Amino acid sequence: MVELLIALFLGSLVVLTFYQLLITQNKTYALYDDTAEMQQNLRAAVDRISRDAMAAGCGKPLWSTINGVDASSWYNAGNGWTPYRVSTNGSNNNLDLVGCFSPTVSHLNVDAAVSATTITLNSAEGGNFNTSNSQDISIGTAENAKVVFVSGDTLTIDTNPSMGGNQGLTLLEPANTYVCGVTWVTYSIGAGNVLYADAHQGLGNQAVAQDISAMTLTLTGKLLTINLTGRTAIPDRTTGQYITSQVTNQVFLRN
User: Fold this and answer.
1) Residue 11 has what pLDDT?
2) pLDDT of 12 higher than 80
3) Residue 89 and residue 130: Cα distance in Å, rounded?
4) Choice between 76 and 24, residue whose per-residue pLDDT is larger
5) How many helices (H) and strands (E) does the chain have?
6) How far apart are CA 255 and CA 252, in angstroms?
7) Residue 152 in this model has a pLDDT that exceeds 70
8) How many Cβ atoms are within 10 Å of 236's Cβ, its own excluded?
9) Which among 25, 55, 203, 232 could disulfide-bond with 34, CB atoms 3.0 to 4.6 Å apart, if both were Cys?
10) How far, in Å, are 25, 30, 87, 168, 244 from residue 39 at the CA level?
């Protein structure tokens, strides 16, 4: 009986040791997995912001109401229609950008003459624009317009909405000229360590990446330095501290 009790005791010690080792390994794996996810989110976030920052100003309009939302507090003639702004949001920064950011681009199906108030898009691309959430567009390299009516692949446009009436094209735009939607987007850090993007089209903040705890932006001339700080979703169970990481990128703003 004594020998049996000793054997049970020793066996329990071995099982307990292996159990503790398993728990430790599981915690370590969970922390490494969380850290890897944080770093992946950081890379995705800085890539998204950098891509849009480089496109800022592409197709920018010379009016401040973009897709029905007033951006005149910062995007206006007095500021030279500068299509980017860094503002303070508590301990973080916000980044406002105006430009053609969507990868979805349409093309003219036929030539659009000077003074034309309608344009016709390729039949497979006509549905890319409407009057509710994509009414500001850029045509080619030098012309902007507001979409005021859509009928199939044909868009009725106004190239100078401040004048009243329906102003037509000022340039001849040949077939296959690209047409892209103009957007005002705001990047910010919100509750729960989430990077948000608001395209100001009625959908509010949309999550871009999780585990982003801070965003610091420095604008020197046209050089934008983006610094993002990430934080793991769970703390290190040994120290009780969250693991953090940073990623930095610099973008030259072309417009």
Assistant:
1) 59
2) no
3) 33
4) 76
5) 1, 16
6) 9
7) yes
8) 15
9) 232
10) 21, 14, 25, 49, 9
Q: Are 84 and 56 in contact (CB under 8 A)?
A: yes
The Cα 184–Cα 203 span in angstroms is: 13
Torsion of CA 131, 135, 140, 143, to 10 degrees: 120
Band (8; pLDDT cuts 50, 70, 90): low
The token pair that represents 132 in the structure block: 């509710």
166 in the same domain as 132: yes
In a domain, 207, yes or no: yes
Q: State both tokens at 64.
A: 């401040």
For strand 92-99 and strand 154-158, is the pairing parallel, antiparallel, or unpaired?
unpaired
224 or 16, higher pLDDT: 224
Tell me, what's the pLDDT at 35? 81
CB within 8 A of 210, min separation 6: which ones? 41, 192, 193, 194, 195, 233
Which residue type does 3 have?
A: E
118 token code pair: 């309608």
Q: Domain check: are 171 and 113 in the same one? A: yes
Sheet with 223-231: list strands edge to edge.
Answer: 212-220, 223-231, 244-252
Where does a domain end: 122, 157, 181? 181
User: In which band, very low, low, confident or very high, does the pLDDT at 10 lie, cut at 50, 70 and 90?
Assistant: low
118 and 61 in a common domain:
no
